[in-house]
Amino acid sequence: MSGTTPELSSDVAVMPQDVVRDATSGSGAPRRRRRNKYRPVWEEQPTKAGQLAKGLTLSAVVLVVLFPLWTVVITSLSTTAATNEAGGLVIVPHSLTFNAYAQVLSGGIVTRAAMVSVGITAVGTTISVVVSVLAAYGLSRPGSFAHRPILFIFLITMFFGAGMIPTYLLVSSLNLIDSYWALILPGAVSAFNVLILRNFFMAIDASILDAARIDGAGEWRILGRIVLPMSKAVVAVVALFYGVGYWNAFFNAMLYINDNAKWPLQLVLRSYVLQGATLPGSGTGQVDVATGAVTGLPVKMAVMVLAIVPILIVYPFIQRHFTKGVIFGAVKG
Amino acid sequence: MSDTRLTDGTVPGADEAPGVAPAGKAPAKKKAKTVVPQRKVSWTARLKRDRSLLLMTVPAILLLAVFAYIPMAGNIIAWQNYSPYTGFLHSPFVGWSNFERVFNNPAFLHAVENTLTITVFQLLFYFPVPIFLALLLNSVMSPRIRTLIQSIVYLPHFFSWVLVVTVFQQIFGGAGLINQVLVNNGGSASVNFMTNPDTFLVLITSQSIWKDAGWGIIIFLAALTTISPELYEASVVDGANRWSRMWHITLPALRPVIVLLLILRLGDALTVGFEQLILQRDAVGADVSEVIDTYVYYQGVIYGDWSFAAAAGLVKGVVSLALVLGANKLAHVFGEAGVYQKS
Amino acid sequence: MNSSTTRPRRVSDFEIGRRGFLGMIAAGAAVVGVPSLLSACTSEGGGSTAPSAQATVSAGNLPNYYPVEYVKPDFPSVNGSTPGFSKIPASFVQSVKTPPGSGKTFTAMTPLWGTIPPAKGNQYYDAVNGMLGSNISFQISDGNTYGDKLATVLASAKDLPDWVCVPTWNMPPRFGSEIVPNLFEDLTPYLSGDKVKDYPNLANIPTAAWRFGVFNDKLYALPFPGEIITDTTFYRKDVLEKKGVDPAVKNGDDLIALAKELTGGGVYGAEDLWTTATYIYAVPAKWKMDGDKLVNRVETEEYRAALDWTARLFASGSVHPDAVAGNTAEAKTRFQGGKSLIMSDGLGGWNEALRDNLASNPSYAQQPFPVFRADGGKPVIFQANPVNIFSFLKKNSDEATIKELLALANAMAAPFGTTEYDLINNGVEGVHFTKGDDGLPVPTKLAATELQPTYIFLVDPPVANTKVQYPGFVEDYSTWMADAAKYLQEPLFFAQQIVEPAQYASLGQPFTDLEKDIARGRKTMKDLDAAIATWQSSGGDQLRAFYQEILDAQ
Fold first, then answer.
1. Of the candidates B42, C17, C178, C263, which lies 20 to 30 Å from B329 by C-alpha distance?
2. Residue numbers of B between 125 and 184 with CB closer than 8 Å to C
3. What part of B 105-144 touches A (C-beta under 8 Å)?
């Protein structure tokens, strides 16, 4: 439990204390000004008890999340001997090593696969978001022509799936086997995301849109100039949903991509997790030809961490769009 | 033409309780209230008026038609004695017998019961958690701390279920941290949280909360951004306090999203954590952990009874769709937009 | 939100591997399809001593057995046990004089439980393909989801590669009845009888392994031969010695007592020992004869007794709590870390454990208990399937192509002591390994990247223990196995591809759950009785009749 967790939790705990100090001591004008910057003028000062409860709850939430995260990272930095010693995930670090990471990242396969994944995610997310935003806006005008049957078409796809084999046969007959499009097109539209987008679009004040229509603006223009700027938050969220979906997908690649050089990252990383598995009935057969590899938990955890890192990097940029402060300006402006 | 544009649509949320600002429409709400009774517009006029809107839906419809609807036709095997290698064009038809097998099976009905129990429990104890967390996070004033917390709590979503279960086992398991502490303090290791069928519901719900609640809040955070601060300012002028602002402004703004997600969750009522349950099946036994998806998986997929799996999938789809449409109707009764409107 | 990211998940989207593919063997072993009576003959070359009289099939359809021996094993095979080699010969024999290939490129699909090797510029592929004279271009697929991959590819004939590896636990339903004859080449005309002599290394594979690849009285599959015994019970020899505990176990009660004695201070005596229970009680894998009546595994006294023993083991509190919670994935981590001291494992886990632990813990030692019977009587060990993985050639009207592929298979099946074997298993000297002072190959870093099991999944020589790098291992192993092999018995329907009708496929599933429930005390023998009654009435008795018919025909 040493290391990062206490540090972070105290960071959170600072908040209520800060408030208390501001309210009572009046120790310094600059500090007070800083708080006021965040608290809208109309918002009353919170009660101490309320702040304490809030601080404690959030600290607890963060701790509960961070602790397992900590064990995952520490385990990924441990030796196999250390995981054996711990009988599983390592909590108290000793003799940290980057061996697991070095092993996964050596050979250049992972970097190549990462490029593939970045490409698929970027292209796929773009297509998905564009298509979904269009569809959602196209269905968002109350009383518009045929919007209910079309919505129904979307809704059906959420509950009636196609089996693995029919989908494969379709992809194969479109000659998409070994094509990156096989990883993008079949899942490009999620009815769920379309419905979410539509829900947000419909919450936009209809009078603004109607006014624009009276001014002669076409629907494309209204979408581009009015609706989208007001919907950055939900578009960011939906882009995140799609992006994460593309990033994490491995099963479709397993089915549709035979050329191992075209494998996306998740599929390659999975192969590291499987390393060292015992084959049934192989006995002392010649199965484990590649020896000297770090196996087991450290590699599994390193893989887990590596798979999350790109999301860690991208997330703050997307998050900006759905946190409060930025949007205030956007709505006003 | 121009006046129909103005008046043909009902405004979502316009019929909400008086004095409550509908979601996201701050200063202009007075205008929205002046709804002129709907006038009948001929469908040709509407088609002409909405053609660009229709055009916008075409790419998505095409994609779904090709990649969802065409392979969906493969579900015909539910009425066949199907073999993948004969293909559904040549497999013999067997009428409704696969559906009869689904319904005449006590094990399947037991799985349905477990599924519904888990769904109801999670609707009560899991569904509200992200909303609560989002509100809590939203009330944190410092952007730095807010961003920090938000950047941490979503992470468990990216952990595999294998890892989540392992982590829980290492904390709550018989050889886990808690029991070690108990033993070190002279107690006897007896906390049996992981293998106790009686508390299994609580266990899997806590796991779901841990894994996905932080991820679930982002959609609500996005909804919160659509509230104009002017609404709050106005309400303060009216003397509303913290709680009444929450009740009269914040929650109503979230309501359309909450209702939508609730309805869609109902559509997923028959789908509960497949992987999570398979992983813990041995720990608590199939009696409490067998759900529809696991049952169909063992029956249909592992043992290659594709026709049975397809029949069960269709039954599930029909029930889910019925639940969603029913819930949507119910939402309309309460004046909510739901998935789609009556208009 | 459960559903916030993507569309609703569908059952068919799920990978099979989550329960660990070991668990899948049991599930996948039931092959479904149209009944076909298959079997084979006794071997003419005397490779396996198959005593059971099997009538229905033409003896002439199987390849004759002509063993070749390039190196004399230090521990020769006893009753079919795996021969052991405790040193690397000074020089290797080249068993195939000229590269047999024509320079064509063939595609091959294989599973992999390991890291994916680079396809381009891979010196290992280049070297082996050079030795073969033709290029084998691999489509490697994740071993845990291989069954799904196979199911889709086999449903779409145009995507079928030239050479397909099929693990027996991944055999899709109706494989034998519909897929094999329609998609794959009948090898009988090429390999039956003495025709196999054209391929001496294939002729070196014992008959039982071939017999398992016979469908509808025709030979289709090239084998990856397995061992006669697959699993056993290991204990941590080093830890027990340090504790001064004598691991002498004569019967089932001794084993529970030992597990209990070893439990304490955060260490537990045992993992889930259900596999051990089935061994010490000689539970048949599928059927046994009781008088003149066929009795299913779940109906036997042995099965019931094994369940009872396992329940007693769990009740004793000596099973590691994580194992009680069903976490089998980390069982080896716990055992190798000394958190639990007795576990059931595949024999292959033995040298892997040495590989993974000797570097960090030089005193690490695990040892299997000598085989014993639960009641202390004479043990019975049922012989394992002769093959767990085999491969098929795509149907091809061109005889020359089939002959070429078989010639490539012949080179790949070269046994220990040949240059081919050395190349396939160790790669190129100076590139993938260097010779250590003791003459043993030391893998280079490049080997870890490039050299993954690929060719061996297409065809393999008879199994041999050549793990010379672990001091004493080959001797320990061979000695133990020679002893265990004394108690070997062929189970009913040994080495036969029997395809059960589809409707019986999932009959056994309730028992998989029941085994866990009874072990953990959630259910009792009464529930077992009820489950057996259900089994019998809902298809078990018909299944019995089905097997009886096969038996009568033999």
1. B42
2. 130, 162, 165-166, 169, 173-176, 179-180
3. 133, 136-143
* Apex C282 CA angle, C277 and C283, nearest 5: 75
CATH of the domain spanning C239-382+500-553, picked from 3.30.565.10, 3.40.1280.10, 3.40.190.10, 3.30.2350.10? 3.40.190.10
CB C406 within 8 A of CB C199: yes
Indicate whether A269 and A153 sit together in one domain: yes
Instruction: Give CA torsion, residues B246, B250, B254, B255, to 10 deg.
Output: 60
Residue with tokens 């087991």: A296
User: Rounded to an integer, what distance in angstroms lies between the CA atom of residue B140 and that of residue A50?
Assistant: 12
Q: How many domains does chain A have?
A: 3
Question: Residue A114 is part of which domain span?
Answer: 102-331
CB nearest to B10's CB, from A142, A155, A158: A142
Report CB contact under 8 Å: C322, B174: yes
The pTM for the full model equals 0.82
Q: Does A105 touch chain B (CB under 8 A)?
A: no
Tens digit of pLDDT for each residue in B233-252?
888 788 778 788 888 888 88
Residue B296: its chain C contacts at CB < 8 A?
11
How far apart CA C167 and CA C282 sit, in angstroms, is 25
> Could you give all domains of chain B from N- to C-terminal order, each with its CATH number?
106-333 (1.10.3720.10)
Distance in angstroms (rounded) separating the CA atoms of residues C368 and C335: 13
Q: Which residues in chain A are closer than 8 Å to B68, comparing Cβ atoms?
A: 157, 162, 189
Q: Which residues of chain C have pLDDT under 50?
A: 1-55
**Is residue A5 in a domain?**
no
Domain chopping of chain C, boundaries: 17-228+385-489, 239-382+500-553
Q: How far is CA B73 from CA A155, B92, C214, in A?
A: 16, 16, 36
Distance from CA of A164 to the nearest CA of B (A): 9
Q: What is the pLDDT of residues C86-114, one digit of tens each?
A: 888 888 999 999 999 999 999 999 998 87
Max CA distance (Å), chain A = 80
What's the ipTM?
A: 0.80
Residue pair C251/C374 in contact (Cβ under 8 Å)? The answer is yes
Residue (of A85, A144, B304) closest to C267 by Cα position = A85
Cβ of A170 under 8 Å from any chain C Cβ? no
CATH 3.40.50.11460 describes domain C17-228+385-489: no
List the 190-209 stretch of A: residues with Cβ below 8 A of C: 190-192
Q: For C179, which residue in chain B has the nearest alpha carbon?
A: B85
Q: Is the four-CA dihedral A121, A126, A130, A136 of positive or negative sign? A: positive
C345-356 tens-digit pLDDT: 988 889 888 887
Under 8 Å between Cβ of A96 and A79: no
Neighbours of chain C (3+ CB pairs under 8 A): A, B
